[in-house]
Amino acid sequence: MTSAYDIDVTTAEGTSVPLRHYAGTLTLVVNVASKCGLTAQYEGLEALHREFADKGLRIVGFPCNQFLGQEPGTDEQIQEFCRLTYDVTFPVLGKIDVNGPEAAPLFAHLRAEAPGDWGPHHGEFYDKISAVTPATEPGDIVWNFTKFLLDDQGEVLARYEPPTTPEDIKKDLQQHL
To answer: What does the pLDDT look like over 45-95, one tens digit per residue?
Structure first.
């Protein structure tokens, strides 16, 4: 079985490297967007990064434009937005697809390993997203800011759906670090 850390990812500059290059004791992989109603989660992600990086947490962002065109910029524009708007210091890599035939191999792997729990129990957010997003395949990512927590071997410990904020997963991080 392949570890997520063995899968190549592409930097914002276009270089291909294995995810292991960014790995820590724990790694939080997040599909991100700069024009999304959840974009403010960048602030919480950066706060987690600053609080837990010295304990082994690595956060890696993957911009995605598959959800109502909420990440329309170039990789360079995305980097500038992250730096200037949220003072992001964790790596934000090259823009990718997370679903469908052009999905980045990392996200195809993560979706297969952790299909998620998307459903009506997510309340109002579920209702809003379901109204604008076509039916998805089982395991598909439904929106930006879906998060995957990986252990030091690259195995998925948890998947967090978009309405789960970075602050909501702080206890999990503390438990595993």
So the answer is: 999 999 999 999 999 999 999 999 999 999 999 999 999 999 999 999 999
Angle value at C-alpha 35, between 34 and 41, nearest 5 degrees: 55
Selected catalytic residue, list 7, 9, 28, 36: 36
SS3 128: helix
Assess if residue 152 is contained within a domain. Answer: yes
In a domain, 112, yes or no: yes
CA separation for the pair 23, 33 (Å, rounded):
22
Q: What is the pLDDT of residues 104-144, one digit of tens each?
A: 999 999 999 999 888 778 888 888 888 887 667 778 999 99
Domain with 90 in it: 4-167
Give the β-pairing of 147-150 and 156-160. antiparallel
Q: Would residue 82 show up in a list of annotated catalytic residues for this protein?
A: no
Q: What's the rounded Cα separation, in Å, for the pair 40 and 37?
A: 8
